[in-house]
Amino acid sequence: MTIPADLKYLKSHEWIRVEGDTATVGITDFAQDQLGDVVYVELPEVGRSVDVGEAVAVVESVKTASDIYAPASGTITEVNDALSGSPELINEAPYERGWLFRIRFEALGDVMDAAEYEQVAQ
């Protein structure tokens, strides 16, 4: 299981990469492994305002469907359109090509560093 040290994490198994006032969000390697083969992703609308903890996307696998929660309050600025035709990117590269959306944030929620998340993802 990979847990990059440069990212922040949520207990609900999302990761967040902060760059200035924008953050890229996806699900962790642990989460994609638990879900199994991802077959569909429902992404939020660009321009949508979200609050910390709000369900903003859905990832469906052969096993189950899982809500994806906003790690920050702000506005969705971009979604990963590649996932609509290739949802398996989440399984193949959850931290690179399998990201879900970007958000210009006003307030960041309660996040953990890699060492803290490693304790949760066991």
Structure characteristics:
about 120 residues; alpha+beta; OB fold (Dihydrolipoamide Acetyltransferase, E2P); 6-stranded antiparallel β-sheet; 3-stranded antiparallel β-sheet; 4 helices; 9 strands; globular
Structure commentary:
This protein has 122 residues and is an alpha+beta fold. The protein has one domain: OB fold (Dihydrolipoamide Acetyltransferase, E2P) (Beta Barrel), CATH 2.40.50. The chain contains four helices and nine strands, in the order βββαβββββααβα. The chain has helices at 29-35, 82-85, 89-92, 114-120; strands at residues 8-9, 14-19, 22-27, 38-42, 49-50, 55-61, 65-69, 72-79, 101-108. The strands form two sheets. A six-stranded antiparallel sheet has the order 1-2-3-9-8-5. Strands 4-6-7 form a three-stranded antiparallel sheet. The N and C termini lie close together (10 Å).
Number of strands: 9
Please give the CATH architecture: Beta Barrel
Please give the share of residues in helix. 10-25%
How many alpha or pi helices?
Answer: 4
Question: What Rg, in angstroms, do the CA atoms define?
Answer: 13 Å
Give the DSSP E fraction (strand runs of 2 or more residues): 35-45%
- Mean of pLDDT: 95
The H-and-E topology, N to C, reads as: EEEHEEEEEHHEH
For the largest sheet, list the strands in their spatial order.
Answer: 1-2-3-9-8-5
Reported for the largest beta sheet, the result is: 6 strands, antiparallel
Number of domains: 1
- Quote the CATH topology: OB fold (Dihydrolipoamide Acetyltransferase, E2P)
Form type: globular
How far do the termini sit from each other?
A: 10 Å
